[in-house]
Specification:
alpha/beta; three-stranded antiparallel beta sheet; binds flavin mononucleotide
């Protein structure tokens, strides 16, 4: 039975952030009463090894839905092979003033300017350790910087989160592409990125030596970067032997939704209007990245066809967010059934 057919009309009558909060509360209650099996797709797909980690399947939940790490096992029960929690910053922060989340229903899209609302790395790691119990998939921890931290000190925030997340995460995602923290995307400038990523690579080597465990890290990039910059970034990622690239985050472009309600809201646009652009970025990455560096494709995946496009363009794994909001858990079942 597709519960989402019943719950979606109710959720969509609420403002998007209340709907999100209610859903997360519902998922936590399901975990508490051990009712997660109700979410099960009853189907599995081929496992795949990426970044040296065995993923139970290619379908992951993208960052931003579970920002606190509270709902991993309930979300995992939907069939996801991986859950990326975050973005998490060193200190807790409230994010931007509300309203900051908008549905663009006409195009099955969302605009968000949440601004990294999260409980801070220490609380998030406690949540993750508890809520991942029972989840047999892969847990990624997506890290960023606090709003109050100047870009010149951004590296300190990433390092703090990296060190703390390392013992808990299966992989770490370094988010330098959110449009909702002023200046964050400047970290994608190749020279700035080099300083940050080489420092994180050094730290990774140190932590590996100390712990005897290698935790890979992926870099998450925006769709709003031009071809030349992608080439330069690929040179850097190849030189530093970055473990994976996640493409893409949301876009600041409104080209695809001009004239529609909420189109003029500031923030990042996600969902079907960004599918083509993010697939183009994946295709460019797959030309310029060393074949040993996997790409995780995300942006507008809402069907088997759109997921296959990402894989055809060069993605090894795909992630979803907005598609899940519009289609519900049956989307995950459909993607698993296709055994991508
Ligand atoms: C409400 C919302 C919040 C998000 N928050 C984050 C975040 O905190 N960190 C991050 O890396 N990406 C975040 N994203 C971006 C998604 O992870 C994903 O890259 C993007 O939405 C494109 O995928 P989609 O079209 O399937 O949603 C967020 C997206 C949405 C819709």
């Amino acid at each position: 039975m597709d519960f989402y057919k019943i719950t979606r009309p109710i959720l969509f009558r609420l403002d998007p952030e209340s709907a999100h909060r209610l859903t997360m509360t519902g998922l936590r209650i399901m975990t508490r009463f051990k009712a997660e099996s109700l979410l099960s797709p009853g189907i599995s797909a081929e496992p795949i090894e990426v970044m040296g980690i065995k993923f139970p399947n290619r379908i992951g939940l993208a960052a931003g839905l579970d920002k606190s790490g509270n709902c991993i096992s309930a979300l995992g029960a939907m069939g996801f092979g991986s859950i990326e929690v975050g973005t998490i910053t060193p200190l807790a922060q409230d994010g931007n003033p509300k309203p900051r989340l908008f549905r663009v229903k006409e195009r099955q899209a969302i605009i968000n300017r949440m601004g990294f609302n999260n409980p801070g790395i220490d609380a998030a790691l406690e949540n993750i350790s508890l809520s991942r119990k029972g989840f047999k998939g892969v847990v990624g921890i997506n890290i960023g910087k606090n709003k109050v931290t100047e870009n010149s000190r951004a590296i300190d925030d990433y390092l703090k989160c990296f060190r703390k997340a390392y013992p808990i995460a299966d992989y770490i995602a370094v988010n330098i592409s959110s449009p909702n923290t002023a200046g964050l995307r400047d970290l994608q400038n190749p020279q700035t990125a080099e300083g940050l990523l080489s420092r994180l690579k050094d730290e990774q080597a140190l932590l590996q030596e100390e712990s005897g465990r290698y935790v890979p890290f992926a870099v998450k990039i925006a769709p709003d970067i031009h071809c030349g910059q992608i080439k330069e970034l690929c040179e850097l990622f190849n030189a530093l032997r970055i473990d994976a690239v996640i493409a893409t985050n949301t876009t600041i472009s409104r080209e695809a939704i001009k004239g529609l309600p909420h189109a003029t809201e500031n923030g990042g646009l996600s969902g079907s209007p960004i599918a083509e652009k993010s697939t183009e970025v994946i295709a460019e990455l797959s030309e310029d990245l060393d074949k040993s560096i996997p790409i995780i494709g995300v942006g507008g995946v809402d069907s088997v066809t759109s997921a296959k496009e990402k894989i055809k363009a060069g993605a090894k794994l795909v992630q979803v967010y907005t598609g899940l909001i519009y289609r519900g858990p049956s989307l995950v079942r459909e993607l698993l059934a296709a055994n991508l």
